[in-house]
Write a structure and sequence with these properties.
Elements lengths: L20 H7 L1 H25 L3 E9 L3 H5 L5 H4 L2 H17 L1 H8 L2 H4 L13 H5 L4 H8 E5 L5 E8 L2 H59 L1 H45 L6 H8 L2 H23 L4 H99 L7 E4 L16 H26 L6 H7 L4 E6 L14 H4 L4 H17 L6 E6 L6 H14 L4 E6 L6 H4 L8 H6 L4 H4 E3 L6 E4 L9 H6 L1 H13 L2 E6 L6 H7 L4 E7 L5 H13 L4 E9 L8 H11 L4 H4 L2
Parallel strand pairs: 5-12, 6-10, 6-11, 7-9, 7-10, 11-12
Antiparallel strand pairs: 1-3, 1-4, 2-3, 8-9
Helix pairs in contact: 1-15, 2-15, 6-9, 6-10, 10-14, 11-14, 12-14, 13-14, 18-19
């Protein structure tokens, strides 16, 4: 049973077939180089022709933008008053429009002798300049196209440039334009001065009338409000207000102190811890009832002492006296405590009375301060109104003085050239005959180079886009979406190759060709994924693809790996193994399909490799090869051969030409398709891929054969690196 088809795992999405840009550059590098050179020569030729037949010369006059008139009038050096670079650029643009569009400048310039007289024919006063006679345009339009105003970046300078086909004529004409432009600036300045003077005088009259009205209003207000008396009263009221505020501050301090004292006394009264003053203590001790009780207590104490001295045995009477003395003492203490409580309340009431009195005084003082502040505020309003009117009058008078000074300056400056734009340097100098302004070499050389490169590269890209032949691994993996098993270099590019190409892996083991075959062999082993292939078909997509060479080298390489290998020539139309292996008998593959008894006699070992056996194509079959391969006999023979050999390699006919290879592909474990670089189209490879998919063949991949190092140089670096790494670098190889 065949292994699962590898081709079914390839994604069906179609990638872009657009050529790789670097590949086009490498492959068509000589075309691109020649095209770029031709483009460069074309640019040089056009430049030389125009330089010889229609050169253009430019002459220019330079002007500078100065500070605004307002900055000059105020004698300031502040950069903000001089004007920003943006403002200067806007002014220069306006000058460009003025010079190129103002009919008064254009008409007057065209009337100048530089435009009216031909300098090369001074004897003929009626000869017009070549600028007017050569141009097919209307003179004013021709002048607009020939003159240009351009700023010098980042500066306050601009140039007026005139371009013609005569160097001296360009200088004379731009000098004439500059002269007319300067006169026009002077006229504009005079006109603006006249307008400015008129506006200033109008403003002066208006201000004088406003000042008269303000002066009358101020005098009337001063008289009505009696400003002198208001000023004196205002000072007095301010002093009084200051005194009241100071007194209020003192009272508020006393109120705060009284409030704090009252709160403290009240808390001590509630706790009974308030200490009485000396006066109140005297008040308590001098109370009549307290004095009476003290006397009674004293009398009782004296009676007790007398009784104790006379009769010591009268204990009951002594005890009674003690009781009365204690009762009297208690009455005295209660009376004193009652009096002390009343005294504390009197102290609290006194503190409260003082607090309330001070609070009332403070409130009264606040009212007086507010009343005084209102009086001062009314006086302030009158004084502010007076000062505002006075300041308005002063401001108007200052403006009037400035206008009067400006009028004096304008009258003094009348008739003088005081324009902001001033000319720098002298007249324009005629450029030398070799100093042309047009054409410039870079204007034609760079487009010529770029154009030649673009056209030649585009041609190469188009050729590559229309070339559908398979030449590189990219064409296989991306364009036809097939796995690449490897590529084999062209025989002429491998200088170390010796002997027969069909056995290079054995006879020239150190060559790049042999290394390529070993890489294909290794990738086939990787494709097997641990399940060795027992049957393998090697066939070209188209004739002369090199399938026999690759099949032979694969068979030799596997035999070198100690495998039992049978190499079968399955190309009944153009058998080729007998050219490499001379001992192959006449009977072969086609014969044993008809008569299986000839199997053993048809298979021979390779003379140099005993583990490699060979089976030739045999005699040309009398019936169709496809029928032979579809027969039960072939299946039986194939089963016998699988038991004898580790792998059977079939060298098949081209897949795109005959059906027997497609039929054989469906019966083997894997198929290796061979494509000769630059011979087979991508469409042919795609059709073969689809045919193999239809018969469920296991296409292991494609080998790109005869990949040459010339042209695009796609594989050249690979070859050179291999020889350097292997220590076999040859100068002849390196020079290829």
């Amino acid at each position: 049973m065949n292994q699962p088809s590898a081709i079914t795992s390839i994604p069906r999405g179609t990638p872009s077939d657009a050529p790789d840009l670097l590949f086009v550059l490498r492959h068509y590098r000589w075309l691109i180089i020649i095209g770029t050179i031709l483009g460069t020569l074309a640019g040089l030729g056009i430049y030389s022709y125009i330089r010889k037949t229609s050169p253009r010369y430019s002459a220019s006059v330079t002007f500078q933008v100065g500070a605004p008139r307002s900055a000059l009038d105020s004698k300031t050096t502040d950069s903000a008053s001089i004007g920003t670079l943006e403002e200067v650029n806007r002014l220069i643009k306006r000058q460009g429009v003025l010079i190129e569009q103002d009919n008064r400048i254009l008409d007057k310039a065209l009337e100048h002798e530089a435009f009216q007289r031909d300098r090369r024919d001074p004897k003929n006063p009626k000869a017009k300049s070549r600028f007017l006679t050569k141009n097919n345009l209307e003179p004013k339009k021709a002048l607009q196209e020939a003159v240009a105003v351009s700023p010098i970046g980042g500066t306050e300078v601009f140039k007026i440039t005139m371009t013609t086909d005569d160097n001296e004529e360009a200088a004379n004409m731009v000098n004439a334009i500059a002269l007319v432009y300067t006169d026009r600036l002077r006229e504009q300045d005079k006109e603006s001065q006249a307008v400015r003077l008129k506006d200033l005088k109008t403003s002066q009259k208006t201000l004088e009338e406003e000042i008269r009205i303000i002066e009358a209003t101020l005098a009337d207000f001063t008289r009505t409000a009696n400003i002198g008396r208001v000023t004196t009263r205002h000072q007095i009221e301010m002093d009084t207000l200051s005194t009241l505020k100071s007194a209020l501050l003192n009272i508020e301090i006393e109120v705060s102190s009284a409030q704090s004292s009252y709160e403290n006394i009240k808390k001590q009264v509630e706790n009974g811890t308030l200490q009485l003053t000396t006066d109140l203590e005297m008040y308590v001790e001098n109370d009549p009832q307290v004095r009476m009780l003290e006397n009674q207590k004293l009398s009782l104490v004296q009676d007790k002492e007398v009784l104790q001295s006379n009769t010591a045995a009268l204990t009951r009477q002594t005890l009674a006296l003690n009781i009365r003395i204690a009762a009297t003492s208690r009455m005295i203490d209660e009376r004193r405590e009652e009096l002390r409580a009343k005294a504390r309340l009197r102290m609290q009431e006194g503190a409260e009375t003082r607090k309330n009195s001070l609070t009332a005084s403070a409130e009264d003082m606040r009212n007086r301060v507010k009343e005084k502040e209102l009086q001062v505020k009314d006086l302030d309003n009158l004084l502010v109104q007076y000062q505002n009117k006075k300041d308005a009058l002063t401001g108007k008078q200052r403006i009037l003085q400035n206008i009067s000074d400006s009028i004096d300056k304008q009258e003094l400056e009348a008739g003088t050239d005081y324009a902001r734009i001033r000319r720098l340097g002298g007249d324009a100098v005629a450029p030398l005959p070799e100093d042309v302004s047009y054409p410039k070499l870079p204007m034609f050389l760079i487009p010529g180079i770029l154009g030649g490169f673009a056209l030649s590269f585009g041609l190469g890209y188009l050729l590559e886009l229309t070339n559908t032949r398979v030449r590189t691994p990219r064409d296989i993996t991306r364009s036809v979406q097939l796995p690449l098993l490897g590529f084999v270099p062209d025989q002429e590019d491998d200088a170390s190759l010796a002997g027969d190409l069909a056995t290079a892996i054995r006879t020239s083991p150190m060559s790049m060709m042999a290394e390529s075959f070993r890489q294909v062999r290794g990738r086939l082993a990787a494709q097997a994924d641990g399940k060795p292939l027992s049957t393998l078909l090697v066939a070209s997509i188209a004739p002369s693809g090199g399938a026999s060479t690759i099949a032979s080298n694969l068979a030799n390489g596997m035999a070198l790996n100690d495998m039992r290998v049978l190499l079968v020539d399955a190309n009944f139309y153009r058998p080729s193994l007998n050219k490499t292996y001379k001992n192959i008998p006449q009977t072969g593959f086609s014969d044993i399909l008809v008569n299986p008894a000839d199997l053993d006699a048809s298979i021979v070992p390779c003379a140099d490799m005993p583990r490699l056996h060979l089976l030739g194509a045999g005699n040309k079959p009398t019936i169709g090869a496809t029928e032979l391969l579809e027969s039960k006999t072939f299946r039986d023979i194939l089963e016998q051969l699988k038991k004898r050999y580790d792998i059977i390699i079939f060298d098949g006919a081209p897949l795109s030409l005959v059906g027997d290879s497609i039929s054989l592909a469906s019966k083997v474990d894997g198929v290796v398709a061979i494509v000769r670089a630059g011979v087979v189209s991508r469409g042919t490879v795609g059709r073969v891929r689809d045919q193999l998919r239809q018969v469920r063949a296991n296409l292991l991949g494609v080998v790109l054969n005869a990949a040459q190092t010339h042209g695009a140089g796609y594989f050249k670096q690979n070859y050179r690196t291999f020889y350097e790494y292997a220590g076999q670098t040859d100068r002849n190889v390196a020079s290829k």
